[in-house]
Amino acid sequence: MAARCISAAAFFCLFLVFLLPVSRHIINLGNCAGMAVSMLTALILLFWDRFCSLVARCWEKPLGRTALCITGLFTAAAVVAAAVISVFMIKAANDRPKDENTTVVVLGCQVRNGAPSLMLAQRLRAAYDYLSEHESVKAVVSGGKGEDESISEAQCMKDWLVEKGISPDRIFMEDKSVNTEENLSFSKKIIDENGLPQRITIVTDGFHQLRADMLAERTGIESNNISAKTRWYLLPTYWVREWFGVLYYKLF
What we know:
alpha/beta; Rossmann fold; five-stranded parallel beta sheet; 59% helix
């Protein structure tokens, strides 16, 4: 009983972690699914005897037995899929470039009041660190202008990097894209037009690297990755969202 209560408390804490991004107006499939699963698991653990009794009653009926079998198989498949995708996500997040024969491509993210959002700022810091250490490498900053943005994401990124001391001659802007696939395909065109190294190094959040790699491969680009840090309270939400994103990409 004590072990179940402790486990229930742990899942309730996990529910709160998924709830935290809502305070920053971040609501997506990741935290919605995370909140639902963690709260459901906590309730099952707290009311274990009632849950077991309900399962037993359902098992006595053919339809209930079928429903339980389907639910069990679906749950097992979901756990396995999440584990496998997570392994590949971790691998992609740590696939750093081996040499300087590369072009850095910084994927865009929201701009707020002309300045980088929290997530975009982290990507820019990761790009700045790499470009500062490898002065022969050039970069493409990629991202268009959304309806709620005063300037394009690309312009915001270039301004930030130049202000930090990166030469503007090393930065090429791609300011028309509206999603990751366009980020990469439009950046490839700029790379081709300017004779830059064809192998790219994608700078984005670690949780996003696997799907970015998949899209790069579809576009005919060889890629490595440099991963930006993600705030701890945002990581679970976006990590779970990526499970759905990767599955969608693979299925459709």
